[in-house]
Amino acid sequence: MIFTGWLLWVKNKSVTLEQGIVLGVIVVIFGLFAWGKWRYDVVALIGLFSLVIADVLLEKVLKYEQSNLIDPEHALDGFGHAAVITVAAVLVISRALRNSGVVDLITRRLAPFAKNQMLHIASLCVVAAVLSAFMNNVGALALLLPVALKTANEQGRSPGLILMPLAFASILGGMITMIGTPPNIIISTFRAQEMGEPFGMFTFAPVGGLVALFGVLFVAVIGWRLIPKKALKEAGKEEMFELKEYITEVRVPEDCEFIGKTLGEVEKDTGEKMMIFGFIRKDGKVMAPNRNNLVREGGRYLVKVDPVDLKAIMNQSGLRLEKELRTRIDNIDGDDVNFTEVVVTPNSQLVGRSRSFLRARTSNSVVLMAVARQGQPIRKRLGDVVFRVGDVLLLQGIQSDIEEHASNLHLLPLAEREVRVGVFSKVSLAVIIFGAAIALSMFKIMPTTLSFVGAILAYIFLGILPLRDLYREIDWPVIVLLGAMIPVSQALQDTGLTDKIALYANHITDSLPSWGILAILMVVTMCLSDVINNAATALIMAPIGMGIAAQMGVSADPFLMAVAVGASCAFLTPIGHQCNALILGPGGYRFGDYWRMGLPLEIMIVGVSIPLILKFFPMSPVG
Q1: CA 562, CA 188: separation in Å to the nearest integer?
Q2: 555 with 613: CB under 8 angstroms?
């Protein structure tokens, strides 16, 4: 759509200067989203600020009487938009439901289904979809991820077999209700803004619910069979999730029995359990050693070895951890010192940071022992690693310290997780409050945003949601993205660019049936959502969809619903949705593994959702 708009401008010169500026800003925003150098909230702010600068130049330099780009005095009004507040409220409520023990009560019932492989996958997917309909889908996945890993380990199944269907089911479940995913919230509030009436809490259910049902059936019965066999690593024997090989640094003390032996002989003596693949020079640079090189006293090496095997090798041979690591480990007091695996979540402060940041934030109370990415240990010095979403970190320290820092840094522990009844054991009360908030919204007694704010206050007063947890679960980059992109989306409409794009789109598709136009809109939205943030996709495509409906003289509802479904379907890459990124490390997947199940799933969704949209939201003519 954007590319055709550029062609329209270049060939026919029918786009105004203001429309050309908006189109240029959107193209740049999409390009920066796809590039990925800067986080999506920063990119959105770049787009917003660019429009403000352009507006000032038009009015102050080019002497436009009044620009339709953006009013600088109201450029930040998007942060007070109902969609932004609703998304934040849903995230806070998700935290309260976690605290109450609702999720743990549900997952406790899953154990009997784990014995049969298909039932195991299906039961986890159903629970994930249901939870995601009423709470943030990333939060729902984070809660179920340790459960999935634990049950997979108990049954001797590869985590890669379970996690991708689970992540996809979490995304599908968000399509069921208005609050299940940010695109649905955006579409609902956009409809209220343009048509005076928002979509209700369960207006999405006839389409989204059935799409989720068919989607869950697909991933549980067929989809998991499409996962590449090379992605299905062997299930751990001791841990719920175990990366068998890690990278760490060791040194050779004067009494080490390996001195004088070749590297090949050392590997043979350890039963090939330890591979020496790097020699650390005095200046810190790593060189690839020859297997015939002799081990020297005081030498430092990078080795690949399982932590349990490393401990036995150290005890037998006298090999020691590199001095810097050893000093920090010796400074840890107490007997409760162990290894814990954690995964870097999308909201973690570690994303884009290095080991030095981790040390500063934890005051050296935990030690980073190794890092694995996409199921493989990273072959570089630990201090040089820049953390990414989905990375698995091996931490050593006192258990209570690790748990505290993991919570503060938004790291998800993958250690064996005992199911518990919540912090305050107020399951029924939490569900009643949440149900009351939904009822107030459904019966239009109170706007959804305010009913959710009331529920949050009730959770605080009743002790279900401690003040320290109030803002912990809010995904601030998404909030900033929404607040910055809403004015950009509005500029798309105020300059008339939406109508121009819709007119040209109708011109090139006038020979197609109405369902074909709807399908193209959904597919384009899906493609954008696979490479950029789904909320940004919804904000840009919603006005275009409404413009196409206006040009056709039909109801906008089927087009808005097509955008909602398309924006929620990001199954082709790990970068399209946070759920996909979260399982990348624990599942041991690679970038190209997702489309094998994701592409057939997206094709099925288009085939199922278009008839459902036309059934429940017909293209009725409008006067």
Answers
A1: 13
A2: no
Which region holds residue 143: left if phi is over 0, alpha if psi is between -120 and 50, else beta? alpha
Residue-wise pLDDT for 593-617, tens only, equals 889 999 999 999 999 999 999 999 9
How deeply is 35 buried, as exposed, middle or buried, from its count of CB atoms within 10 A (0-12, 13-18, 19+)? exposed
pTM metric for this prediction: 0.75
376-396 burial: b if 16+ Cβ within 10 Å, else e:
ebbeebbeebebbbbbbbbbb
> Within its chain, how far is the Cα of 491 from the centroid?
28
Q: Do residues 455 and 509 lie in contact, with contact meaning Cβ atoms separated by under 8 Å? A: no
Among the listed residues 455, 457, 478, the one whose alpha carbon sits nearest the alpha carbon of residue 467? 457
| Cβ neighbours of 316 (radius 10 Å) | 11
470 burial type by CB count under 10 A (0-12 exposed, 13-18 middle, 19+ buried): middle
| Residue 274, strand partner residues | 305
Q: Which helix (H) or strand (E) holds 99?
A: helix 82-100
6: region left, alpha or beta (phi > 0 left; psi from -120 to 50 alpha): alpha
Q: Per-residue pLDDT tens for 337-363?
A: 566 888 888 878 898 898 889 988 888
Question: Is 100 within 8 Å of 422 (Cβ atoms)?
Answer: yes
Which residues partner with 376 through β-bridges? 373
